[in-house]
Design a protein that fits this description.
Layout (H helix, E strand, L loop, with lengths): L2 H5 L4 E6 L10 H8 L3 E7 L5 H6 L8 E7 L6 H19 L4 E5 L9 H8 L4 E5 L4 H9 L10 E5 L4 H8 L4 E5 L5 H10 L6 E5 L7 E4 L12 E6 L5
Parallel strand pairs: 1-4, 1-5, 2-3, 2-4, 6-7
Antiparallel strand pairs: 7-10, 8-9, 8-10
């Protein structure tokens, strides 16, 4: 490929962050690209409805072509890698024909976003543009009306999928944390927060900014699991 000259003959892949849930939290740039897109792409987890598409739906033209990427949600990495490879192949076919493709991404494309795996497969061959979006962590902080960090505090972003010892070590050395991907790992997370005497400093926000958003103190939750799209904000009052 001869650099930018070759790229100019092909389409552009846009990875567009649609934010955490409320369509009004999308950026103007995201709205512009989605509303004028000839082709959009998005993930469909285990064949279910796409959250990213649902967020962007008010702005999608009925005549827009849609590339639905079936994503098997499993612990094993091989099925997901195969899905990303298939997505890259299907999107590349459109780009080669000179079509632009807008890939919808929940939150921000490069913040734990699946778009990064399509990006790494296509960015060396095609022009790719990343459009940032509001993250679930920012949305969760706004939902509970508490800043994430102040002054010289350090915020840790911790996936609940981490093993218990690692998560315990990370939480024991921070005054502020955002725990994501909670889902079936909630029981483990609550147990660790209790051991560290942080359970009363922790708030669980599920589906932040969606119409069915819930906000609960972790100490008051008895379930062993919560929806996947739950963020736990931990901020130690004594250190503020």
């Amino acid at each position: 490929m001869a650099g930018d000259q070759a790229m100019s003959k092909t389409g552009i892949l846009y990875g567009v962050g649609v934010g955490p849930g409320d369509p009004e939290l999308m950026t103007v740039k995201a709205w512009r690209l989605i509303s004028s897109a000839g082709t959009i792409a998005y993930l469909s987890a285990n064949g279910s409805d796409s959250t990213a598409r649902a967020i962007a739906s008010p702005f999608i033209d009925p005549d827009t072509d849609e590339i639905i990427i079936d994503m098997p949600m499993r612990v094993e990495r091989a099925p997901a890698q195969a899905a990303y490879a298939d997505a890259a192949r299907r999107i590349a076919a459109r780009l080669v024909d000179g079509e632009d493709v807008v890939m919808l991404c929940e939150g921000d494309p490069f913040f734990y976003g699946s778009f990064m795996y399509v990006f790494e497969r296509l960015s060396e061959t095609f022009k790719c543009v990343v459009v940032p979006g509001v993250t679930s962590i920012s949305a969760a902080s706004a939902a509970i009306g508490h800043p994430l960090v102040a002054r010289d505090e350090v915020l840790k972003v911790l996936p609940a999928t981490m093993d218990a010892d690692h998560l315990l070590a990370e939480l024991s050395t921070t005054s502020a944390a955002a725990i994501i991907k909670v889902g079936r790992h909630f029981g483990k997370v609550k147990s660790i927060l209790s051991r560290l005497n942080l359970v009363y400093d922790a708030t669980a926000i599920t589906r932040a900014t969606h119409s069915d958003q819930t906000v609960r103190s972790v100490a008051e939750i008895d379930e062993d699991s919560l929806p996947y799209f739950t963020t736990i904000i931990v901020r130690q009052a004594a250190k503020r």
